[in-house]
Amino acid sequence: MLTEVQIRLVKGTVPLLESAGVAVTEYFYNRMFNAHPELLDIFNKSNQRSGRQQFALFSAVASYAQHIDDLATLREVVERVANKHTSLFIQPEHYDIVGHHLIATLKELAPDAFNTEVADAWTAAYAVLAGILSGREQQLYTEKRSATGGWYGPRPFKVISKTMESELVCSFVFAPVDGQPVLDYLPGQYLGVKVKPALASNIEIRQYSLSDQANGQTYRISVKRETLPQPGLVSNYLHDEVKVGDVLELLPPAGDFYLQAEPAPTVLISAGVGLTPMLAMLETIVAAGRNTPLWFLHACENRAQHSFVSRLHTLAQQQDNLQRHYWYQQVTTADLKTGLVSAGLMDLGALKDQLPLPQGQFYLCGPAAFMQFVKTQLLQLGVVATNIHYEVFGPHQAL
């Protein structure tokens, strides 16, 4: 437990952290990686280059300092981070390294404000946070290792099929090399995929949403080839170099974004490759025979980039209560004739008389700007915030 003095000292550093911005985390990462280059096998270098990882860490540190006297408010963040960490196989010793370099960074960048007393308070505060996160991660590791089909750490899987689902998205189906069952997952969760592309100087770990319902035998992910603002190292490696028969290492399914158990009216909303966890949810709902109202709403550039469109048509034929609507930036006359496609940005107001606004559960996945745009519309239409669930690719950010 932290003392009142320690809490006061940590909270007193919030203005310092806010004024420093990401300069603190940029310095921290450079310091840590210089001392521990092996950690480059864990951290996503693309997010480092874009600044997203620095921003996420800075936000987490500032938020922790601000709420250190009411840690219950951080429960959702802890769950999200702990799940992400298990997909990277984070261990307790990693917390010791991060803590050492975080405290040293703050001492070096603000020696006057970050005196010995403040440094000691932050050391104690960090130990509390590390204990909470690492403790939850160890629980998750134990649960996944002991469950049917579960395992601990990287496990070799063979690629048994590779299928283009659209112009930019390719699906990979993995079966375990040992031939044993695999852990079930909740629709919406993701896998950690561990690879070493020829062009990479380090091991790369990426998280990809599972795009099918759980079957206990195989996993499927559907990966978009990333081209902008620069080619995605891992996505292009998977598209261009990984073949059927190749063996990759996978971490167990993880993630705190998933379909809720209650059979409420459900609206699945996505853009681009954000469709993948929504498809897993839809497949699960259809297989379970739920007869509550069900909507699948999707936005993408054009028909050529609309993944799984044939499968969605088949599911709609199987599930009478499934309603679909799509928005394309580039439409053809043939698209419009289907009655399912509109041109331009997703406009939920046009469907407000049909959507289950008061009682529905709304799931969002796609670029952060898209989800913010959609969430704003939903709130304006009267949907309560607690009925809006979302997943952000990469380092988490609030909508």
From TrEMBL:
<protein>
    <recommendedName>
        <fullName>nitric oxide dioxygenase</fullName>
        <ecNumber>1.14.12.17</ecNumber>
    </recommendedName>
</protein>
<dbReference type="InterPro" id="IPR017927">
    <property type="entry name" value="FAD-bd_FR_type"/>
</dbReference>
<feature type="domain" description="Globin">
    <location>
        <begin position="1"/>
        <end position="138"/>
    </location>
</feature>
<keyword id="KW-0479">Metal-binding</keyword>
<dbReference type="InterPro" id="IPR017938">
    <property type="entry name" value="Riboflavin_synthase-like_b-brl"/>
</dbReference>
<keyword id="KW-0521">NADP</keyword>
<dbReference type="InterPro" id="IPR008333">
    <property type="entry name" value="Cbr1-like_FAD-bd_dom"/>
</dbReference>
<keyword id="KW-0560">Oxidoreductase</keyword>
<dbReference type="InterPro" id="IPR001709">
    <property type="entry name" value="Flavoprot_Pyr_Nucl_cyt_Rdtase"/>
</dbReference>
<feature type="domain" description="FAD-binding FR-type">
    <location>
        <begin position="152"/>
        <end position="260"/>
    </location>
</feature>
<dbReference type="InterPro" id="IPR000971">
    <property type="entry name" value="Globin"/>
</dbReference>
<dbReference type="InterPro" id="IPR001433">
    <property type="entry name" value="OxRdtase_FAD/NAD-bd"/>
</dbReference>
<keyword id="KW-0520">NAD</keyword>
<keyword id="KW-0561">Oxygen transport</keyword>
<keyword id="KW-0216">Detoxification</keyword>
<keyword id="KW-0813">Transport</keyword>
<dbReference type="Pfam" id="PF00175">
    <property type="entry name" value="NAD_binding_1"/>
</dbReference>
<keyword id="KW-0349">Heme</keyword>
<dbReference type="InterPro" id="IPR039261">
    <property type="entry name" value="FNR_nucleotide-bd"/>
</dbReference>
<comment type="similarity">
    <text>In the C-terminal section; belongs to the flavoprotein pyridine nucleotide cytochrome reductase family.</text>
</comment>
<dbReference type="GO" id="GO:0008941">
    <property type="term" value="F:nitric oxide dioxygenase NAD(P)H activity"/>
</dbReference>
<dbReference type="Pfam" id="PF00042">
    <property type="entry name" value="Globin"/>
</dbReference>
<dbReference type="InterPro" id="IPR009050">
    <property type="entry name" value="Globin-like_sf"/>
</dbReference>
<comment type="similarity">
    <text>Belongs to the globin family.</text>
</comment>
<comment type="function">
    <text>Is involved in NO detoxification in an aerobic process, termed nitric oxide dioxygenase (NOD) reaction that utilizes O(2) and NAD(P)H to convert NO to nitrate, which protects the bacterium from various noxious nitrogen compounds. Therefore, plays a central role in the inducible response to nitrosative stress.</text>
</comment>
<keyword id="KW-0408">Iron</keyword>
<dbReference type="InterPro" id="IPR012292">
    <property type="entry name" value="Globin/Proto"/>
</dbReference>
<dbReference type="Pfam" id="PF00970">
    <property type="entry name" value="FAD_binding_6"/>
</dbReference>
